Amino acid sequence: MLGDPENFILANSLSTPAHIVPEWYFLFAYAILRSIPRKLGGVVALLLSVVVLLLPSLRAAFLKKNRLKNWTERISSFKGKRFNLDQQLIM
């Protein structure tokens, strides 16, 4: 078991063996990290790619929040005007 000749082959830290392949949902990250030689640059590129992927949903959530805010402001301002009109009619 330990006497297998493949255990004594020196590993090359600059290349990944061909039989090691990530799962399909990590392929984009694997490709980005392998294509950029510096580690920090690869991590920054990976984070930017995730932000770009999430940008449409973040934008939609932001717009939905603002729509809801405007909707509630319209209702509250409408109620206030109606209440003021009722008071003026009573007086």
Describe the structure concisely.
The protein has 91 residues and is mainly alpha-helical. The chain contains two helices and no strands.
Walk me through this protein's architecture:
This protein has 91 residues and is mostly helical. It has two helices and no strands. Helix 1 crosses helix 2. The longest helix is centred in the last third of the chain and has 52 residues. It is elongated and about 80 Å long. About 5% of the residues have low confidence.
Overall pLDDT: 76
Query: What is the CA-based Rg, rounded?
Result: 30 Å
Assign an overall shape. elongated
Uncertain ranges: 82-86
Per DSSP, what share of the residues sits in E-state strands of 2 or more residues? under 5%
Structural features:
91 residues, 2 helices, 67% helix, 0% strand
Task: Chart the SSEs and their pairings.
Blueprint: H1 27-35, H2 39-90
Helix pairs in contact: 1-2
